[in-house]
Each structure stands twice: as C-alpha cells, then as structure tokens.
Amino acid sequence: STVANKLVYTAQIIPDRGSWLYFEYDAKDVLYVRINKRRKVPVTMLFRALGYKKQDIIKLFYPIQTIHVKKDKFLTEFNPNDFMDRIEYDIKDEKGKIVHQAGKRLTKKKAEQLIKDGLKWIEYPVEILLNRYLANPIIDKESGEVLFDSLTLLDESKLAKIKEQKSFDIANDLANGVDAAIINSFAQDGETLKLLKQSENIDDENDLAAIRIYKVMRPGEPVVKDAAKAFVNDLFFNPERYDLTKVGRMKMNHKLGLEVPEYVTVLTNEDIIKTAKYLIKVKNGKGHIDDRDHLGNRRIRSIGELLANELHLGLAKMQKAIRDKFTSLNADLDKVMPYDLINPKMITTTIIEFFTGGQLSQFMDQTNPLSEVTHKRRLSALGEGGLVKERAGFEVRDVHATHYGRICPVETPEGQNIGLINTLSTYAKVNELGFVEAPYKKVVNGKVTNEVVYLTATQEEGLFIAPASTKVDAKGNIVEEFVEARQDGETILARREEVQLIDLCSGMVVGVAASLIPFLEHDDANRALMGSNMQRQAVPLLTASAPIVGTGMEQIIARDAWEAVKARRGGVVEKVDNKSIFILGEDDKGPFIDHYTMEKNLRTNQNTNYIQHPIVKKGDIVKAGQIIADGPSMDQGELAIGKNALIAFMPWNGYNYEDAIVVSERIIREDTFTSVHIYEKEIEARELKDGIEEITKDIPNVKEEDVAHLDESGIAKIGTHIKPGMILVGKVSPKGEVKPTPEERLLRAIFGEKAGHVVNKSLYATASLEGVVVDVKIFTKKGYEKDDRAIKSYDKEKMALEKEHHDRLLMMDREEMLRVCALLSKAPLNSDQKIGDKNYKKGQTADISELEKINRFTLTTLIKAYSKEIQKEYDDLKNHFQNEKKKLKAEHDEKLEILEKDDILPSGVIKLVKVYIATKRKLKVGDKMAGRHGNKGIVSTIVPEVDMPYLPNGKSVDIALNPLGVPSRMNIGQILESHLGLIGLRLGDQIQEIFDRKQKDFLKELRAKMLEICSIPRLASEKEFIKSLSDEELLNYARDWSKGVKFATPVFEGVNIEEFSKLFEMAKIDMDGKTELYDGRTG
C-alpha cells in the first residue's frame, strides 16, 4: 500500500484459529505490530513482551561491528560481505593507504586478492561513524558508571569521549538487507515504558511490555503483571486458542527457512522474529513479496474442513452452555446425569444449517453426466470466508501461470462470477493439505522416464518443464538439442539436459468439459468458454447418439459419472432383463454371481428423466469397471449429449440471420431432438382450527367429468394424460364458522350439510404443464388412516421388493451350486457313482458339466462318496451361503421395515401427496440449440424436408447455419468438425455399400476397407487391432462403422493437414471441403 506517495510494506500471520498478527511500516520507517487490528505498538514492545532483552533484540536484527581505537583512528576488521554493493567511501588500510576507491564495486576476486596481500584492518571513516548507534552500553572502567546506553546516537562529542575506550560495538544498520526500523521502534517504545514505570511501579521492561500489550487488547480493564504475561502467552502459544494448522506450519517453514516440526501448530518466538526480519529484508529489496494469486498461496478448503470448522463452533457453544448449567446447578451434583447437561441440538442445528443454509450448499447439477462430473470438480472463491464478487478485482479472476495443469483456463461462468468459479483440470489432484497438484513425467539426462510425479505450484518453482509436444524418439530421448520449456511461468529455450520434467499430455491444461471439444486449439477462448458451459446444459434426449467426431474423453466421463452401471468384477452375463443384470464370474474362492439393478423414470434435480438400460446381452464377457448399462445421455458406454446432424453453412432466405437456425421437419418427425422431463407437484392436507383438510374426489361446485380421471382417493390415476387446468389432486378445506345467509341455508337444505362447510383447494395443473402421470407418492402422518391409493402403492412397492429378493435368492442358490460343482470336480471319488448321464469309477474325478445336471437333493447323497476333507469344505461352503442368505433376508426385512415405517411430516401436516408428470418436449421454434464451439442460436423456422437444400445424392441437410457466424467469432473448430464428420459419414456409406452388395468374399472386402481407413500413421495400433479380429467380431465393428466412422481428435493433438488430405481422398470429397447443394424448392 502507499501512504503519502511512499510505499509501505506489511506482513501478516493469519492463523486458522486465533489472533491475527500484522507487521507494518509507517511513513517514518518505524516498524509497528498490530494484534487483531487493535492499536499498533512498536514491534520491539512485542519482542520485549516475549522475554527478549534490549541487547538480545539488537543482536538478532543487526550485525555487530567492533570498532577499535588506535592512534586516534577508528579501525575495524576487513569483511568483504560489508561491501557487496557500490562503496560509498574509500577503503583505506590502517596506514591510511587507499586500497579500493569509492563508487566502484568490490568484486569477489579483488576482495580475495586484498586478503591475500595481508589486508586485515581498515579505517572506518568518522563521517560514516557519526549517526551510527552503539550496540552495547559504554561503561566507565574506573567508576562503573554507564556513560552511554545501547542505541545511543553517536556524534562528535560522544566520539571524543569514547576515544578513551580501546574498542566499542556499533549496530551496523548499513549492512545488506537491514535498516533502522528496529532502532526507530526502540525510540518509540522508550517513552511509553518510562510512563508505565511511573504508573505501575515496576522496573522490569519485559513485564511492562506485557502490561502494555494487555492494555491495548483490553482497554479499561485492571491488570496484574502475571496475568498480562499469561495473556500474551495465550495469544500465540496456547494450542486451545491458536492453531496455524499443518498447512500454516508448512508455509511458515517454507517462507522463512525454518525447520519447526509440522505438529507444532502454534507460533514460536522464532516465527515472529523471522517474520519481522523477512519484512525488513523485503523493504530493503532483498526478499520476495508474496503473490496472492499464486496457487502455492491459494488452497482448497474441502467440504470436510468447512464442516469441521462449523462443528468446532457448535462444540464451543455447547461447552459454554454446559459450563453455564454447572454454575446454575445446586450443590447436589451427585445426582446430575450427562443428559441433564448436554443438549445435542446445538450440534445437529449447526450441521443442518451448514447443509441447508450454507452459501456453497447446492443441489447437484444432474442435467447430464457431464454437468454432474464438472459440478463435483468445481472450485469457488466465494462463500463464507471467501471473496465477495462485487469487490473482487481483475487480478484474482485472471488466469495465472500456476493454473497450468491445475485449473482449467477455459471453463468459468460468463457473468459476475467470471474467474471466481473455476474447474479442476482433467488430471489435477488435490493433496491432503488442499493444494492442487499437476502430473508430470520425470526427465533424466534428456530421456523421458515413465515415472509420473504430482507437484504443487510451490514444488515446481525453478524447474525446467518441457511441453508434451516435444519431439521424443522411440527410446524416450528428446530429439532436439534445445527445447522450448517453462520455468516459473516464463517460456525459455533450455538445453535438453537441463529439462527436468515434461507434461503428461497436451490435454492436461484444460478441464473435463473443454476436453470434449474437438479442434479446441482452433477456437477463440471466449467461444470455447461458451461451448464448455453449454455442453453442461444439454438435456438428455429420447435416443442418444455418440458423436462421430469426439476427443476420446467421452468414454472416460461416462465411466466416472454415477449415471452408468459399472461391473464390480469381471465375468459372463448370466441373465439380463429391463430391470436387472446378473454376472457370473470366478475369483480365488470360486464362482460368484453379482447382481445389478436398473433405475427407471426417476426425476433429477433439473426435472430431466433418469433412466438406465442394459447394453450387454446374455453370454457377453465383461471386465471389472466396464459399463454394462447406459444412463441418460449415453450411447454404448460413451457420453452422448447431442446428435450427429448434416449441417449446411449457407444463408436460407434470411431465416438464419443473426445466428438463427433453420431446421428440417425430418428432425422433428424422427424425434431427433425430443426429450422427456418429469415434474413433481405436491399438495399438503393440514390440520386447521376449524377442522382437517381432506384429500377427496368429492369436491363442491365441480362437474363430474372434471373429476373422472381421479381415483376414489381423489388423486389422478397413473397414465392419465394431463392438460393445463386439470385437477391433479382433489382437496377440500373447512370454512370458518360464519353466520349463513338465507341463500346458503337453502343450499345446505338441498345439497346437504357438507356442501356449505368446505371450500375447494385442489391442486390444478399449471398453464404450461401437459403430460402423463407416471408416479404418485402418498405420505400419511402416524395416527391417521391410510387411503386406498396409499395401500395400493404400498402393496405395489412390497411386491417389487419381494420379486427382487426372490430373484437374488435364486441367483444365490445358483452361485452355491456352481461353487459346490467346482469343488467336487477337482476331487477324486471314493466309490463308483453315476453322475448325470455318465458312470464314474472310484478314483476318477467327475466332469463339471455332469455335476451341474444333478439337483440339490441328489447332491446331499453324492457328497458322501468324497473324502472327509471335501465333505468338510462342502459343509463350510453350505454354512457360508446360509449366512449370506440370512444377510440377504435381513437386508430385505430392513427395506420392508423402512417401507412400513410411519412417514415423518412437518408439524400440522397430516397428509402429503406428490404427483409426477412426464412431459415429452419436441424441438420447436424459439428453442435454443448449440454446438460444442460456442456456436449457439435460436430455431427460427421448421422447414419441410423437401424444401431443404439437398446433396447431389439426394440427401437433404438437417440444419442450415449462417456462415457469417464463423469468421467474427473465430471458432474455426466447427468447420473442421463438420468436415471430419462428413468424412466419417462418407466412409460409413462406403462400408454400408459393401454390406448391401453382399458378395461371396464381402468379409475380406470389409476387412480390406477398414484397414485402408486405418492407414493413417497415428492409427497404426487400430490397424493391428482390426487384423486380430475374428470374422464375427469384425462384422459387429463394421455394422457400427457403417453408421459413420468415429474419429477421436484429442485437444491440441487433433487431425493435421496431411491426415485431412488423405481422409478427403479416401472419402472421395473435394480437397477444398466444399459440397454442391441444390435448392429443395426449385431443384
């Protein structure tokens, strides 16, 4: 900061818990200290309070220089370190001869030569000695009287008196990295201590300093010497009141070069002294000022740490409450029980408030798998203890050099929160201290090793890091002698032997969402930001399609999201249906069967439809971790948040002006962009002072046809098509007791008592709501009777649980039989036996296929034909499965118990009904559509398929985009993506042609065509893979390729010009990438 146009230096020690300590200079170069922003005191006052004497402080901060008096000359020992900068005076030896002139720099070589020539003593000029300070008191040897106290400013008269001494010490405030700040602080605190001596009647300056700090911190309170000392100790050295945490200790040690053990999380005297010393050094141009935006100085506070802090506050409140109760209790403490003192509500309230009212507490973004993954990887600088977006400056929002490989430079919101909310990079990790680490490969003597290391921004300081694009030969040696490397955020040219690390891969710079954008390197950063943000907003479609042009990250994101079902262990699919998958495998213990269930038609937080469907069939071999069931926005285990559409960049009668989008009617007809959304509507029946509200079909003043779709309980039936204004749940509420008018009395006489006493409070469908009722949930308070609909709902859920339990029991029996068969197939028989269709003699082993034919009852007699060891193993196996079945039964009973439990409802609510309505949304005019490159627009018109422009082969385009949307936005990636997509489509058509011809040797032709497509050098591994495929496997791959050959273009490693040229040639597309189109209306 600046005061009176002068730079003012400050240092802060900020603990996790405890008093903040500020060191600051003023305009007069006095060093002060503040505790918790209270009144400032000279820093020497704090040092004295910590127990340091005046002489000790001088020795800590200043080099002590001894001056000898010989023949009226002041001499000192020659020390080259005192002359590191340009010299202000001539260096003279003790005879007065000039050995080095003023204004010249004393080099190391010259200094060594002077010492070699015998220079030991040099003359200390009197003009420099004036205005220096004594380091130690000058005492008269005869009388013992103190002539001059330490830190006395020398002048001519004092020097004349001191000449009688043979030698004296001065505090060298002219030394490197030192100034007069501490001396000035002593001058300031001297007056204060004199006044305190008189008022407190205490001579010890350390005690007086402690009293002074106590008075500053607690003004107006009476103070005692011992209490003041204890107070100062508690401020910084008491673990109960002060905590730096492991991180604080690590940072303190790193910054100040200390070696204090990490378990010491309170301050030490050395910490405080070294901090003041470092600040003085910085002020004198020697140290480094901290960059608060450097990721070595910013850390992530995880959910656990934030919750722990809240719990600490809750426990502190509880402790105070318990102490207060103790003081208010009577003398009879023997009868007091813990529950009389402890009120757990303080803790539960703290936890509930943290999760419900916390600034960073949010519902998970479940729009699609990508939005969920990125939400979990989000970093925020806002929230409690963080920044306020209105006051956050440009520096904190800007991309910093240390973000490389740690924080995505692309993905961040566009509005007020830009740069304050970020995302972790793809391969970044957060260590136990909360610092973000980036992965690198080690480089030793110019050779790249396979050892991967994760480093924080602090750990990589000073290291030479090469980019992933560095040319490396087959053995891992860096090819070029000079490499463009990074060091401390600067790009430099380094020798290959100097390089210590290399980036793991090019894509490590960006986050998950940005890594899904093909040809990201050809897009402007602003448009890439929009593209990565809009991908998270893509709603799951009715039918998902994996992209023809991807980046290779699609499968990884799908695997890591919770939407997909992944195999826990490898094996063979034993049974699969719409709701469950059973996988048979084998481990060290023998065969096993794993069970997986599918979720259907669940509502997400964003009202999208969550549905899972199997992608494996019976007999398929699966590996551990493999996706066996797709979730929403997934296709065959790949992320599929959009559709592959044929796009024309051309104007179309002004309908695609200003980013508007022209769409073919075929897209709407084929439900290409149709999505399903599920909305939840709820209504409560309450207990009122005039009676209770009732969920019923009997609603006053409503026509019979308006309630025909409601069941007897007054709730819409499942499958009902809902339109705006329809009743979802019928509810009547009692009227207050008001004297009825003659007309009301007449109505009551005609229609009965009830009609006049209740009012219609039903739940109606809103104006925009149209769909089908897919589910209803009814919650009833304890003590109130459940209606028919609630009972039916309970019976349905119970039946589903019973069926699931039955299926799992059958599979467990099958697993048991397989394990027993595996056991018996390895052991010899003790007697002749007929097993299945075969006869076996004594000593032979039965085939597992024959053992599997026998039933459980035959098995109990057969087991006697085996040795006792085998019989014991069989008994152990039987007992194991009996225990497993008991566990399964206990799990089932627990689920039933939860189902049968009384519902917990808010006070006054006796019934709660939730109706779930599924809405099918087709693409319509006014809807927003977007690509992956930030190319967004609104659907302006839906054109009949015959009127859309068409290709020479007669195929009409799906979407017409404005070509002016490309050059000014500088997102050329969309053009390259379109070209590669068209190549994939044309190559797929060529494979489909081979299928259509169905010649005798078409399999051979198929293999040849697929190998030709893989002839690009970077697809060499794919080529080998296709060669190794069997005919059946090749057919499956070819069928997939016939819909469009899929390409993965990883970010910063995309398809290059040479590869594009070869692909254009193979796909038989003009080299300029342009295509002739015909007007659909005129031909």
TrEMBL record:
<dbReference type="InterPro" id="IPR007121">
    <property type="entry name" value="RNA_pol_bsu_CS"/>
</dbReference>
<dbReference type="GO" id="GO:0032549">
    <property type="term" value="F:ribonucleoside binding"/>
</dbReference>
<dbReference type="InterPro" id="IPR037033">
    <property type="entry name" value="DNA-dir_RNAP_su2_hyb_sf"/>
</dbReference>
<feature type="domain" description="DNA-directed RNA polymerase beta subunit external 1">
    <location>
        <begin position="440"/>
        <end position="503"/>
    </location>
</feature>
<dbReference type="InterPro" id="IPR007645">
    <property type="entry name" value="RNA_pol_Rpb2_3"/>
</dbReference>
<dbReference type="InterPro" id="IPR010243">
    <property type="entry name" value="RNA_pol_bsu_bac"/>
</dbReference>
<dbReference type="GO" id="GO:0000428">
    <property type="term" value="C:DNA-directed RNA polymerase complex"/>
</dbReference>
<keyword id="KW-0175">Coiled coil</keyword>
<dbReference type="InterPro" id="IPR014724">
    <property type="entry name" value="RNA_pol_RPB2_OB-fold"/>
</dbReference>
<dbReference type="InterPro" id="IPR007120">
    <property type="entry name" value="DNA-dir_RNAP_su2_dom"/>
</dbReference>
<keyword id="KW-0240">DNA-directed RNA polymerase</keyword>
<dbReference type="Pfam" id="PF04565">
    <property type="entry name" value="RNA_pol_Rpb2_3"/>
</dbReference>
<dbReference type="Pfam" id="PF00562">
    <property type="entry name" value="RNA_pol_Rpb2_6"/>
</dbReference>
<dbReference type="GO" id="GO:0003677">
    <property type="term" value="F:DNA binding"/>
</dbReference>
<feature type="domain" description="DNA-directed RNA polymerase subunit 2 hybrid-binding">
    <location>
        <begin position="567"/>
        <end position="1083"/>
    </location>
</feature>
<dbReference type="InterPro" id="IPR019462">
    <property type="entry name" value="DNA-dir_RNA_pol_bsu_external_1"/>
</dbReference>
<comment type="similarity">
    <text>Belongs to the RNA polymerase beta chain family.</text>
</comment>
<feature type="coiled-coil region">
    <location>
        <begin position="867"/>
        <end position="902"/>
    </location>
</feature>
<keyword id="KW-0548">Nucleotidyltransferase</keyword>
<feature type="domain" description="RNA polymerase Rpb2">
    <location>
        <begin position="197"/>
        <end position="301"/>
    </location>
</feature>
<dbReference type="InterPro" id="IPR007642">
    <property type="entry name" value="RNA_pol_Rpb2_2"/>
</dbReference>
<feature type="domain" description="RNA polymerase Rpb2">
    <location>
        <begin position="8"/>
        <end position="78"/>
    </location>
</feature>
<dbReference type="GO" id="GO:0003899">
    <property type="term" value="F:DNA-directed RNA polymerase activity"/>
</dbReference>
<feature type="domain" description="RNA polymerase Rpb2">
    <location>
        <begin position="362"/>
        <end position="430"/>
    </location>
</feature>
<keyword id="KW-0808">Transferase</keyword>
<dbReference type="InterPro" id="IPR042107">
    <property type="entry name" value="DNA-dir_RNA_pol_bsu_ext_1_sf"/>
</dbReference>
<dbReference type="InterPro" id="IPR037034">
    <property type="entry name" value="RNA_pol_Rpb2_2_sf"/>
</dbReference>
<dbReference type="GO" id="GO:0006351">
    <property type="term" value="P:DNA-templated transcription"/>
</dbReference>
<protein>
    <recommendedName>
        <fullName>DNA-directed RNA polymerase</fullName>
        <ecNumber>2.7.7.6</ecNumber>
    </recommendedName>
</protein>
<keyword id="KW-0804">Transcription</keyword>
<dbReference type="InterPro" id="IPR015712">
    <property type="entry name" value="DNA-dir_RNA_pol_su2"/>
</dbReference>
<dbReference type="Pfam" id="PF10385">
    <property type="entry name" value="RNA_pol_Rpb2_45"/>
</dbReference>
<dbReference type="Pfam" id="PF04561">
    <property type="entry name" value="RNA_pol_Rpb2_2"/>
</dbReference>
